Amino acid sequence: MGGWLAATLRLVREVASSVPNVLFVLSVHDEAHLERTRFKPLPLLSALTTAAHWDIPVPGQTWFETSGGVSSQGADQDFGLWESKQWQKQLETKYPWENRTQRAFFRGHDWSASNAFTELLPTRPAEHCIKQHDISMSFGYRRWYAELSHGPLKDVLDVGLTGAPDFVKAQNPQQVYVRPVPLPDHAKHKYLLHLDGTAASNRLLKLLLMGSVVLKQDSIYEEYFYKDLKPWVLAQ
């Protein structure tokens, strides 16, 4: 059983045992589902949503995962431990701020991720030369950042791809892949990049526990806690 599926089932069991005799409709899609232009509003609980969807974001499988993603399944995950004050203190002692590296760090799977629904971002400028139906075309931004980190931005970026689907590897035979890095070891770096995956990446909640500055990609996707995040404000 895959880690994501096992974590989702643990989430369902936890909810069912806490609130009995209530019917929940929980989406296990790794994407928002109920597009506002196609469906009537329904109380569908999902791990993420967008301004274009009716999905209601709820806590996802992050708390229940025991291993990493597709290309880092050997990396242990223990969110309950990571959020404890004792572990946070130990991490700070192991990786003092002054010893952390300066380059923005990222390790992750190359999903050939899509920039779907980015036309709804308030920060996106109008592009009159692009037709409306072409705006959400797929764009491999993780791969793009990896290329930049070995080129013109090598002094400020440390981005490595840990794997990719077979069709992506076939399309990019020259791509070099690197070993996954356990999340606690991300604390060796002062700046951590958070890049979307196939949709929102649930890694953001974990990166915020590493005591580093998180540089988040501007994205249409929202998890349940995004509304409480404030740019440039230190989390307490």
Automatic annotation (TrEMBL):
Keywords noted in UniProt: Transferase
Matches recorded under Pfam families: Glyco_transf_90
A GO MF label: transferase activity
All residue ranges annotated as the Glycosyl transferase CAP10 domain in the record: 18-236
Family: Belongs to the glycosyltransferase 90 family.
Name of this chain's protein: Glycosyl transferase CAP10 domain-containing protein
